[in-house]
Amino acid sequence: xxxxxxxxxxxxxxxxxxxxxxxxxxxxxxxxxxxxxxxxxxxxxxxxxxxxxxxxxxxxxxxxxxxxxxxxxxxxxxxxxxxxxxxxxxxxxxxxxxxxxxxxxxxxxxxxxxxxxxxxxxxxxxxxxxxxxxxxxxxxxxxxxxxxxxxxxxxxxxxxxxxxxxxxxxxxxxxxxxxxxxxxxxxxxxxxxxxxxxxxxxxxxxxxxxxxxxxxxxxxxxxxxxxxxxxxxxxxxxxxxxxxxxxxxxxxxxxxxxxxxxxxxxxxxxxxxxxxxxxxxxxxxxxxxxxxxxxxxxxxxxxxxxxxxxxxxxxxxxxxxxxxxxxxxxxxxxx
Length: 335
Hints:
The structure is a single chain. The chain has 335 residues and is of the alpha/beta class. 33% of the residues lie in helices and 15% in strands. The protein is built from eleven helices and eleven strands. It has helices at 43-60, 79-88, 102-111, 125-132, 136-150, 168-175, 201-215, 228-234, 281-285, 288-295, 313-318, and strands at residues 2-4, 10-12, 14-20, 63-69, 93-96, 117-120, 154-160, 182-186, 254-257, 262-264, 272-275. The protein has a nine-stranded mixed β-sheet. Strand 3, helix 1 and strand 4 form a beta-alpha-beta unit. Helix 1 (43-60) packs parallel to helix 2 (79-88). The longest helix is centred in the first third of the chain and has 18 residues, at 43-60. The two termini are 31 Å apart. The model has no long low-confidence stretch (mean pLDDT 94).
């Protein structure tokens, strides 16, 4: 079991490696975090990482999970070998990518059913396609229908900006009964996303209220953003698990592995911890830099919601603030 004594004994029984196998992708999304041409690991290196993750789980006595993403993970030359190896090792796997074909869905299910296959939408059709490319919305909706027919569980993620704030609830209605869950992440204005705008903090707080109300009648809406817990505290409701199940889980029960072996506390902003090509996961996890990210922001240090919240370090960094010193600029909690 992983423990973080700095936050009143925060502890986790699971650890997720979000592995960005490749930056290759068929789309050129306007909020992409990284379009760099990073070299990719070969089959031998990929299988070694898998074994390293399993060793990490045994060492820390946690259940390890694998999230394969990209770019588009299916474009990596070793994807199928890696997916089968994870299945053979009985390692839970989820997928984050672009709409898969019927043949790809059949092949996935034939090896082992993933926990879920997540795709993205950025709003209703016109706005979504202005962000992700013409025809993307129709492809995603067709994929969701096909996946449902074939028994593949799906989820949908949206990157929240000022321009799609009013489209989230209508999109949720269109997704009702079509997918197992629909959630959002606030835009981290880094990379290509720096050209887009976040909503104002007051507008965002009002949106969380409206979203929470909509959830009462539409179960497709999921809670991911840590700041929902401010409302839960205000209404004397049990706190939600937050972004990774333990509030901000950056470098705690979650790290991101990039195609070239770099390990980051979170993929949504530069937070380099080390390289899996020159060190093992355990050594990277135990580093002083990883410990700093686990402790989170000094601005959250005395907050009673910290274990289930911690704000979003990526949003803080993306808005030009020090994520280890300043609290989430969207935090509206009054102590």
